[in-house]
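Deviation from plan, reported transparently: uridine-5'-diphosphate-xylopyranose complex.
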Amino acid sequence: MNILVAGVGYVGTTTALLLAELGWNVIGFDTDKSKVSTLSSGTLPFYEPGLDKLLHTQLNKGNIRFISDPVQAIQESQVIFICVGTPSQEDGSADLQYIRSAVTMIGTYMQEYKLLIMKSTVPVGTQNLVTQWISEAQKSPLPFDVVSNPEFLREGNAVYDAFHPDRIVIGTDSSAAAQQVRMLYRDIDSPYLVTTPATAEMIKYAANAFLATKISYMNELARLCDQLNVSITDIAAGIGYDARIGKSFLQAGIGYGGSCFPKDVKSLLHIANNHGSSLGLLQQVVQVNETQHQYFMEQIKSHLGIIDKKVIAVLGLAFKPGTDDLREAPSLKLITHLLKDGAFIQVHDPVARLPEAARQAHVRQVKSVQDAIHGADAVVICTEWPEYAAEPWRDLACEMRHTAVFDGRNMLDGTQMKAWGYHYYGIGNG
Ligand code: UDX
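Because the crystal trials were delayed, the predicted structure below was used instead.
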C-alpha cells in the first residue's frame, strides 16, 4: 500500500519519514519543485535534528520518494495525509486555500476509495468543508473518508515526538476508518483517543492555547516579580513540583513564537468570535505575548540608558533552540526596536540566518559568540541555545566594552555572572 503525504514542510516531512520508518511505501508530494528535488537528493530544506539521518536511511531503503506530479501522487496512493500550511490571515482566521486546492485535486483525480487524514491544524468544522470540496470536485461519486489526526510535533524535537507521541487523536465517525488509521501507526506505543472530527480539531487548538496560556501567565507574573524583587525561576520551580501544575512550559522569557502558538491562539479567538463567544482569557494571553518584548526592551533601556550608537550583541535568532525557524521569532522584534533606537547589532545564531528583509548596514551576522560580543556594550539573549550556557563567560567579559547582559530566556546563572563582573538582568528575577 502506498501512502501519500501532501505538503512536505516540516510536519509533512517528519510524518512521511515516520511512516517510511514504520515500513510503509511513502510518496512525499509538494507543488514546490525545488523542495521536491532537495528532499530527493537527501537534503532537508530546513534544520531539524535527526531528521536528515532518517531521510538518508529511508531514501536508501527505497521506502520513500518525492514527486511533484499530483495525478501520479493521488492515483498511486490509497491513503493521503494532508500536511499543507494553514497560515494566519489579517483577521486571525486560518487560511484554508492550500487545504482546498489539495483536496480539490484529490477529488478531481481519484479513481477509487481514498482515506484522507488531516494533519494540518484547521478550524473546527473543516472536516465537513473538506468532504464538500472533494464531493464537488469529483466527476462521478466515489467513496472516501476524511479523518482528523492532529499533529503535536515540537520543532527541534520532531523526530522524538513523532515516535513517542503523548497521544494519537483520531477524529472520525467511521469505526473502520479509525481502525485503518490506528493500523498505520501499528508500532507506535501510545494512548489512542477516537473522537468526533470536530472534537479532534478542537483538541489541537485547546492544547496549543493552554500551553500558550501557561507561558503568558508566567510572563505576566514575571513583571510583578521584578517589582517584588523575587525570582520567577524559583516560583516556576516551586509551583512546578505540584503534579497538578507540572514543570513544563513555566519558563518566563521574551514570549512565545513559532509557526503554531501565535497563529493557533488567534485562530481559536477568531472561531470563538464567530460563535459569539469572547474567550477573554486567551485575548489576554495574546496581549501579554505581544507586549513581552516591549517590556524587555524597557528593561534594557532603563539599565543601558541611551541606545543610540551602542553596540549590542544579540545571541539567538530562532524562535526557540533546535530549529532555524524565524517565524514570529521575538528576536526579530527586538532587533527592530534596537535598530530604531540607533544600535549597531552583532548577531549570532548557531543555525538560523538573518532574513533578507532584516539585513541592513547596522546589523551583521557573525560566526561565533566571541565575535558577537567583541566590543559590545551589552549582550541580549533571545534564544536559549544550550551552547550559550557553555560559553566561557568568565573569560569573555574582557571582550566587551561594557559588561551588561540581558538574558531574555533566564538561561544563565545570574549570581555566577555577577560574580564574574557582569551587570546581569534576567526577566522577572528582581
Ligand atoms: C508547538 C507545540 O508544542 C506542538 O505540540 C505543536 O504541534 C506545534 O507548536 P513548537 O512551536 O515547535 O511546538 O514549540 P514549543 O516548544 O511548544 O515552544 C513554542 C514557543 O514557546 C517558543 O517560542 C518557546 O520559546 C516558548 N516557550 C516554551 C516559552 O517561552 N516558555 C516555555 O516554558 C516553553
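Residues 2-195 form a domain with the Rossmann fold fold (CATH 3.40.50.720). We consider this an acceptable substitute for the interim report.
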